[in-house]
Amino acid sequence: MKADAGHGVSVRIEACSKTFADGTRALEPATLDIARGETLVLLGPSGCGKTTMLRIIAGLERPGASGRVLFDGADVTAVPIEKRNVGMVFQSYALFPNMTVAENIGYGLKIRGVPARERATRIAELVALTNITGLEDRRIDQLSGGQRQRVALARAVAIRPAVLLLDEPLTALDAALRDRLRGELDRLLRSLGITTIYVTHDQAEAMALGDRIVVMSKGAIAQIGAPREIYFRPVSRFVAEFVGAANILEAEVVERRLRLPGGFLTVAENVSQTHAVAMIRPETIGIVAVEAATLAGRVESVSFVGDRQRVVVAGAADKPLTIEAPNGATIRAGDTVGLAVAPDAIRLLPDAA
Ligand code: ATP
Asked: In this structure, is residue 154 part of a structural domain?
């Protein structure tokens, strides 16, 4: 949560569903509470309903019957977007190409009748905050993609919105710039304390920016939780695989032990089932001496990936395990290795999905 939850509002989406005129079911009834000042990320594959949910919060789309949107407890379902005090940034920045940077940032203030002196002060603050000092008098078509993105953000927050809605704002940028802006955006959102709802299909972006993440699949909420919870304690195979690399293995369970072809692993959870689907993140598997391990396998391949090495070990589980190991140890294809996994790094998933 942000330190200064200044002027954000809490947002509640209650039983909001959406079926479009052509019969497309974009959203199953969803209920969601977003705390004042929180950054909530909607994460999911293309077409899962993220943008639809965002547009319902904005007031650009009406939810199906009995669906309600509440800001600080007040029902705004019938309130049009211009009266909701929301700021929006889309993937395509939708800036005014013929206006200068300063005019773009000040636009919302001008139409709200904010006097010129106050406007100038506010624009100067935002220019500094979004790192675009010196560009105030440039036209939009004279800016780079990253600069345009900053202007779009500055314009959206200039009106001091109660809720900031961001729909894949970094998607159009190259990888290096995205990384840098992600950090800047995180700092900016935290310093402003605006309640923010951020749509992305990029799990790294979601992890870095979200106080909580809502993982969506086919119009429904698959899981809501803090980034670490979603990553280490996914509730389904879909979530496990969507938010990161995952080893999914099947095993018999006997007395809190997964019985595997190459030995066994102890799980933390007390399970009643005799057959389990387990998820283990590649970086939580340690490569140790065979004598020190309860599980062993044969190294199938080792690839150097820069800051670490990716090791594939066969024969330990029902399928080859992928391990992200530190560079230190020399591991060769053909070696027999022991594998160690902390019990709480093994997540048991429901059998289905
Ligand atoms: P993306 O990441 O590709 O933007 P998304 O998760 O934001 O996807 P939505 O834009 O919410 O997905 O769309 C959800 C579903 O609703 C999709 O199947 C989409 O084709 C459909 N849809 C969106 N808008 C309309 C519309 N106006 N009429 C009919 N169907 C629509």
From this structure: yes
